[in-house]
Amino acid sequence: MHPYLIPLLTFAAAAAVFTITPGLDTAMTLRTATTSGWKAGLAAVVGICLGLGIWGLAAAFGLTALLAASETAFTVVKWAGALYLAWLGIGLILHPRTSLGTAEAVPVQADARAAFRRGLLTNLLNPKVGIFYMTFMPQFIPPHVNVKEFSLLLTAIQALLSFAWLALLVVLTVPLGRFLSSATVVRRMDRLTGSIFLAFSLKLALSRRA
Length: 210
Prior knowledge:
mainly alpha
């Protein structure tokens, strides 16, 4: 057996548990897929996974050590993320959608771009993701390996697991498309997601460095 296989499998198992645990990424994926369609849902997933990849890349090169070492850097990114989530949440609560297929609807391509941007920013503006990579991944890096290369490999595994799980959630919304597209469901989904975003905004604002 390859000496690196066990740490890779162990990391994959642990990362899978974190991935399927419901959180902000899950809420954003489900809300986007149900209210904007599967294309926008997948665009949000790609944005989320790209954000994870960027944080993992930063961790591999030690950039996120700045967040762990500097109270100022952590606070700036933390409050930027908290305010962004609060802005999204309040917008969804005060101005929920009532339908998906109106003449005034946003074009599919533009909606997908917006979903991608939201998915990317919610990860990039969350310093806890960077701290997670800095504290979690080193536990699975065996001795006598190239730390940067192995860290990037672990990041790729995490991103692939996240993409697979979130994409599956998007696919599962397709058979329920007619039910999920009703005005009542869309409105309630937006407000529920907005409340979740506000909760995560508060949680992020109150968070401290590990």
